[in-house]
């Protein structure tokens, strides 16, 4: 049996492969180290480009299972990919802990006025009476209650927050005080202190946070996006931030990445920009490898794979 591995993860995976599994490496541009023609499993790399995906699919026509380390698969579900009968699995769950912690980082940064405190330190000015906020008793609305959303709720509940969630099929979940359907979350915006975008990017969620949604939020509310940039209408968000519709935003993802140097988001005083890094910890790499090896064992044994993507809904 032959598999295709991304060069950035191959060294971690190769020592864990069974002796009868051979492999070839592929780089981010689709260049192979070896012959991929007989490969039936493809583990793609980070930030997979369409050109690389299509090159691999053309070079290895026997692929029947593809695994991606990312949770989002919008970049994989191209018309070309969908022509193939390939089972797709994703990295859902492996990013949840670090990303949930990062959301708390965004909320505490805002509530505790960290930017202002750093400015005081830089200016050597001892101003004791800066009024800070508490997360206790604040209301958090999480749009998307998958693995990441649930880990956010677990940590936020420890701060004494009231936690609401939105999901396709509403049902009670641990640490959530209220869960509504996908058509009901807008009615909760006027009461939310923090709104976190944690839903996959699909045709239905593209531009989900639009001008109407931003207008419904409190002037004191804070928006956090750790999902995909295209879920937020960036033009509307710039207006909302500039005109005070909302208090600020923590943004780890943007529609165009890297964020262009001339983007106004960089210099807005009420925005915390981070370079799509919320999941990046040493433990993440270990979880990615462990999930793939577990699924490879399942694949070889004819068992149901973990994290199979429903290509019709996009996650």
From TrEMBL:
InterPro entries reported for this sequence: D-isomer_2_OHA_DH_cat_dom (IPR006139), D-isomer_DH_CS (IPR029753), D-isomer_DH_NAD-bd (IPR006140), NAD(P)-bd_dom_sf (IPR036291)
Keyword Cell wall biogenesis/degradation in annotation: no
CDD domains assigned: 2-Hacid_dh_1
Gene Ontology MF terms: NAD binding; oxidoreductase activity, acting on the CH-OH group of donors, NAD or NADP as acceptor
PROSITE patterns on file: D_2_HYDROXYACID_DH_3 (PS00671)
Keywords, comma-separated and alphabetical: NAD, Oxidoreductase
Domain D-isomer specific 2-hydroxyacid dehydrogenase catalytic: 55-309
UniProt similarity note: Belongs to the D-isomer specific 2-hydroxyacid dehydrogenase family.
Name the record gives this protein: Hydroxyacid dehydrogenase
Naturally occurring in which organism (per UniProt): Scytonema hofmannii PCC 7110
């Amino acid at each position: 049996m032959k598999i295709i591995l991304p060069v950035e993860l191959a060294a971690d995976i190769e020592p864990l492969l069974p002796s009868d599994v051979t492999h070839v490496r592929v780089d981010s541009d689709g260049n192979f180290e070896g012959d991929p023609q007989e490969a039936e499993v493809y583990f793609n790399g980070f930030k997979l480009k369409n050109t690389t995906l299509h090159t691999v699919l053309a070079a290895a026509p026997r692929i029947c299972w593809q695994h991606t380390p990312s949770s989002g698969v919008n970049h994989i579900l191209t018309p070309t990919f969908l022509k193939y009968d390939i089972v797709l699995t994703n990295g859902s769950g492996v990013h949840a802990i670090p990303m949930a912690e990062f959301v708390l980082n965004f909320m505490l940064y805002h509530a505790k006025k960290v930017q202002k405190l750093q400015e005081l330190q830089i200016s050597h000015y001892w101003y004791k009476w800066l009024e800070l906020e508490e997360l206790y008793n604040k209301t958090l609305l999480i749009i998307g209650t998958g693995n990441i959303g649930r880990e956010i709720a677990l940590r936020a509940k420890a701060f004494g927050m009231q936690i609401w969630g939105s999901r396709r099929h509403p049902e009670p979940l641990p640490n959530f005080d209220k869960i509504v359907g996908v058509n009901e979350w807008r009615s909760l915006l006027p009461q939310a202190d923090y709104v976190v975008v944690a839903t996959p990017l699909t045709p239905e969620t593209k531009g989900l946070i639009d001008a109407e949604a931003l207008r419904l939020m409190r002037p004191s509310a804070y928006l956090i996006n750790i999902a995909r940039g295209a879920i937020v209408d960036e033009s509307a968000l710039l207006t909302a931030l500039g005109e005070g519709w909302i208090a600020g935003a923590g943004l780890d993802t943007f529609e165009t990445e890297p964020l262009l140097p001339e983007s106004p988001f960089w210099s807005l005083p009420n925005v915390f920009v981070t370079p799509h890094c919320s999941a990046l910890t040493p433990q993440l790499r270990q979880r990615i490898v462990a999930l793939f090896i577990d699924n490879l064992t399942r694949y070889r044994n004819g068992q149901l794979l973990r994290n199979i993507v429903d290509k019709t809904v996009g996650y």
